[in-house]
Specification:
single chain; 3 domains; about 400 residues; Rossmann fold; Alpha-Beta Plaits; alpha/beta
């Protein structure tokens, strides 16, 4: 450790019980000595304070009684204070560390155990990432509150150099499957705090059903259509061909059945909380769906959605003809529409979020700055950069850094 005589920077470390006015008392003494603060950080965890400062050491400060005064003040405040002298070269290394790659790792679930954090922290360490901070975004839970409606979220800030993002993401996805939690891994950059458009798939994303399956049940062809739907969502069939085939089976269905379906399909858990929060924060929202406009319009009005693009069923004399009007909204069309809306709003794709569950959502999930596979099929979870499977739609707010207390 360098001596004070050889050092240019003084590291001051203060720990102990938190109390109002402590930072003021310390910085006032430093201010009276004309100290220049180079860096400062403070954290309070369960009423325990950790305050660290880096100040430039001038010859005048070295000759003064500043450190004695700081020790006496710490004793008066009931905290511990330690000093460490730092050379100019050591400080320069500190400055250069700003060039590290920085990431945010978000752990989500109905409950988070120590074993979950151990597994994730181990994977990060093995990848060369250091955990710089851990923050809780969810509210504090009473001891007897654990259950199917609870949610817990921890956000880890990590940094390192030469990080292979795809490798880290693959390792965390595997851990998520093993432990039954969700783990998001994203760059800590300005765009993470500056998203402005969220585009949703509709069926099995904003609502808890596949509309075409519900219509098929009413038309008496439920099993046939469900089999085609599942195959298409797994990516085994071309969406356009499978969609036309399913719609053709609806021929003869009375128009009145459409409204009955629209009125009775439940929203996805968390949909209203998510969309109302996004609207309050100034986000634009869109539905880009391979489903139908008659349901989309109901959702658009109920949730305050700004844009709607879906398929229009052809109806003649109050009966479904088995055909679709206009261009089918498939995966490629969703991606094109997403880009079109972003351009109209003056946004870069880095400011766009896309959410979906099926293979036909992958083009827009890959195009968006933040693509989220929501309660998705395995092939979609593996192909998307982020996935949420344990919480409702409002779990997306955690990936934006929004805390529960900020939406209460």
């Amino acid at each position: 450790m360098p001596s004070l005589a050889d050092s240019r920077v003084l590291h001051i470390d203060i720990t102990g019980p938190d109390r109002t006015g402590l930072a003021h008392a310390v910085t006032q003494l430093l201010g009276e000595s004309g100290a220049r603060i180079l860096d400062i950080g403070q954290a309070v965890i369960h009423d325990a304070l950790a305050l660290g400062l880096l100040v430039e050491l001038t010859p005048e400060m070295k000759a003064s009684t500043l450190m004695t005064e700081l020790v006496l003040k710490a004793h008066e405040l009931g905290v511990q204070i330690r000093f460490r002298a730092i050379t100019g070269d050591e400080y320069q290394e500190w400055v250069d560390s700003q060039r590290k790659q920085r990431f945010l790792v978000t752990l989500l679930g109905r409950a988070l155990l120590a074993s979950h954090l151990a597994a994730v922290s181990g994977a990060l360490a093995q990848s060369g990432l250091n955990i710089d901070a851990v923050d809780r975004l969810s509210g504090r839970l009473p001891l007897d509150a654990a259950g199917p409606s609870t949610r817990v979220c921890l956000e880890l800030a990590a940094s390192g150099t030469g990080i292979d993002e795809d490798q880290v993401r693959a390792a965390l996805l595997e851990l998520a499957g093993e432990h039954g939690i969700d783990i998001a891994f994203q760059q800590d950059c300005v765009f993470r705090r500056n998203r402005r458009l969220v585009a949703f798939d509709m069926d099995s994303t904003l609502i808890q059903a596949e509309v075409i399956d519900e219509l098929a049940k009413l038309a008496g062809v439920g099993d046939q259509v469900a089999a085609i739907t599942e195959s298409a969502m797994r990516g085994e069939l071309d969406f356009q061909q499978s969609f036309r085939k399913r719609v053709s089976l609806l021929k003869g269905l009375p128009e009145a059945a459409l409204q009955n379906v629209a009125d009775n399909i439940p929203l996805m858990d968390g949909a209203e909380r998510l969309t109302s929060t996004l609207k309050r924060l100034g986000y634009k929202t869109a539905i880009l769906s391979g489903g139908f406009t008659f349901v989309g319009r109901v959702l658009q009005e109920r949730l305050g959605i700004d844009y709607l693009h879906a398929n229009e069923l052809d109806i003649v004399d109050g009966v479904v003809t088995g055909e679709v009007k206009c261009q089918i909204v498939d995966g490629a069309r969703k991606a094109a529409l997403l880009e079109q809306i972003a351009k109209a709003e003056g946004l870069s794709m880095d400011q766009v979020i896309a959410v979906g569950d099926g293979a036909n959502d992958l083009p827009m999930l890959r195009l968006a700055g933040l693509g989220i596979a929501f309660h998705a099929k395995p092939i979609v979870r593996r192909s998307a950069r982020q996935a949420i499977s344990t919480l409702g739609l409002d779990g997306i707010l955690y990936l934006l850094g929004v805390r529960d207390r900020e939406t209460a």
